[in-house]
Amino acid sequence: MSTEVRAAGRRSWTAYVLALLLVAAITVGILVGLDAATTARKAAGRASAEHVPLGEDAVDPAEWGQVYPFQYESYRRTVDVERTRHGGSEAFQRLDEDPLWRVLYAGYPFGIDYREERGHAYMLLDQRETERVTSVKQPGACLHCHAAATRVWRTLGLDAGAPGTLEDPLGTPEAHAQVARGFELMCAMSYEEAAELVEHPVTCIDCHDPATMRLRVSRPAFLDGVAALAAGRGEVETFDSVQRWRESARESPYDPNTLASEGEMRVLVCAQCHVEYYFREPGSLVVYPWANGLRAEQIEELYDERGFADWTHLTSHARLLKAQHPAFELWSRGGHARAGVACADCHMPQVRQGAKRVSDHHVRSPLLNVAAACIPCHDASEEDLQARVAAIQDTTQELMLRAEDAVRSLVLAVRSARDAGVEDPVLATARDRHRQAQWRLDFVASENSMGFHAPQEAARLLAEAIDFARQGEISVLGARLAPDGD
Ligand code: HEC
Ligand code: HEC
Ligand code: HEC
Ligand code: HEC
Ligand code: HEC
Fold first, then answer.
1. Per CATH, the architecture of 383-481 is what?
2. Does this model's pTM top 0.90?
3. What residue ranges do the domains of the chain occupy?
């Protein structure tokens, strides 16, 4: 297949000729970036020209649907259920597809119920029904990414004495204080109590400013996380506005709503939720662990510094980390991110609606929609592109299965050493390697694009996982040969 990338702007001949005249000498990579930004600006401009301002109380998407019927109707299609080779939206039980994970998650709720994720319309339902909630006590913190909760946080915050009123625009210090206080309170509630307060899954107001229609981020853990990322040392080559902020006087913390470009916002609205997180105790506050950077080992370093573990493995007694859908983190290590290709370019592609181009709000696997999601940038047939993705995903899966096998071998080696009377302290190295190996394996496995978002980074992490697991196994053999540690 030709990997030649054509400018996304070749959507019409007029646009193409204009683009040629204006930027004949600019490389294709830059063209793609520029075009994405221009399209975004046009979309925003068009939206605000037609926009009937809505209020911060417009949580119900049906209200927006009266002004934007196309976006509303396509948003509602996230109820569709269709499977792809490695993904799609059928909520099958992953633990039955690949039972080895029951061994790897032993002692943790993910070992009892872990399904393939599906469309946005189901996020509240699936959370309420998972056995990880029905048979384990969970906090209100779970709702941070599964519900339209901003209004609820503000109301809770005001009731607890935060300043201002519900009419304050979201960007003001008063509204910020209301959200922060209410968020803290909701995180600490029981899941059942908090779930009573919310009504809608992610909705228009979670990504758009109701007054202007511009893209906006509002998740408190995301705003804190991204400010910590900016203030830290982690590389941000694919994040220009953070780089610029770092070079500035840094008078106030990095704020994406005022500093990020329109192109970046097409990523950040999704990075509000499709990321790694943990609960900071006491109070189960949702925290995005980005202070050292976005790479798997930088996140691990932060957890090590804080002595954090999600659980202790039932068999190896290693204190393990559970990776949670780090799509934003993995994407940021890939070629598409470097070329400025945003989540929305592939997952919410532009489609023709009469004379207009609009964003398909049926957020789903782009493999169900290659013609709109990939072809505008790639000079290739749909078949070629599907084959190209399958090659990346199949390779990732092969490596992943080897990594799973290696980690299982380590777990079994520890168990038989313990059965043979080797004491826990002698197995400390094996447990450390288990933590490192499983973190890298799970980072790729739970990310859900099966390596596509950053193929080389995914392969690197899986290779390290295999190596750490085998190192751990060798250390067990060593411990058994010389149980006194000489
Ligand atoms: C260049 C196109 C592209 C970009 C950019 C992109 N993705 Fe993806 N994404 C894909 C493909 C292809 C898959 C694999 C889908 C499959 O296997 O069915 C995928 C899978 C996913 C999945 C799992 C979907 C499923 O059906 O299992 C999620 C969630 C996701 N991406 C979120 C994101 C987020 C968030 C971003 C931005 C941080 C992003 N993607 C950026 C192309 C892209
Ligand atoms: C940081 C945001 C965030 C938080 C906090 C969060 N989730 Fe999710 N959850 C997601 C995302 C994003 C997905 C989709 C996975 C993907 O990207 O493919 C998801 C998927 C799920 C699914 C469907 C797939 C599966 O894993 O079976 C369930 C159920 C679920 N979450 C339950 C929970 C529970 C229970 C909690 C609290 C312990 C929680 N979530 C907290 C973002 C979050
Ligand atoms: C998960 C985030 C998200 C949600 C939820 C969301 N949108 Fe959007 N919306 C986007 C993105 C991304 C764009 C592209 C904006 C750009 O390129 O500047 C967009 C663009 C738009 C536009 C501009 C025209 C177009 O189609 O590109 C309108 C109008 C719009 N959305 C309406 C809605 C309505 C109505 C809802 C609720 C039913 C909604 N959106 C829910 C992310 C979202
Ligand atoms: C408020 C949090 C939130 C935001 C914002 C959000 N998502 Fe999701 N997303 C989720 C959750 C939770 C799920 C899993 C729902 C389930 O399995 O019930 C999910 C599922 C998905 C899926 C799987 C769909 C399928 O059919 O399998 C894709 C793809 C996806 N999201 C992409 C995106 C993209 C792209 C954006 C930004 C335009 C985005 N999401 C914004 C929380 C969010
Ligand atoms: C907005 C433009 C754009 C869109 C949309 C887009 N791509 Fe790309 N794609 C690029 C660019 C630019 C590169 C070159 C990246 C680089 O320099 O590494 C690329 C590279 C690739 C590669 C080479 C391997 C890699 O990951 O770097 C594959 C395969 C690919 N794209 C497939 C897809 C598929 C499949 C889709 C749809 C799901 C898609 N692309 C959507 C612009 C795009």
1. Up-down Bundle (1.20)
2. yes
3. 1-50, 52-364, 383-481
Same fold, 52-364 and 383-481: no
Distance from Cα 28 to the centre of ligand 1, integer Å: 23
Average pLDDT estimate for 447-464: 98
Q: Which two tokens stand for residue 119?
A: 């469309």
Ligand nearest to the CA of 66: 3
- Cα–Cα distances (Å) from 331 to 320, 325, 327, 423, 447, in that order, read 24, 11, 6, 42, 10
Each residue's pLDDT tens digit, 184-196 = 999 999 999 999 9
Residue with tokens 């913190």, as numbered in its chain: 141
**Residue 135 DSSP SS3:** coil
Q: Which of 195, 118, 141, 89 is nearest to 126 (CA)?
A: 118
Q: What is the pLDDT of residues 344-355, one digit of tens each?
A: 999 999 999 989
In this structure, which residue's CA is closest to atom 4 in ligand 1?
343
Determine the topology of domain 52-364 in CATH.
Flavocytochrome C3; Chain A, domain 2 (1.10.1130)
Which residue, judged by its Cα, is nearest atom 28 of ligand 4? 364
* Cα 321 to Cα 130: distance, rounded to the nearest angstrom: 20
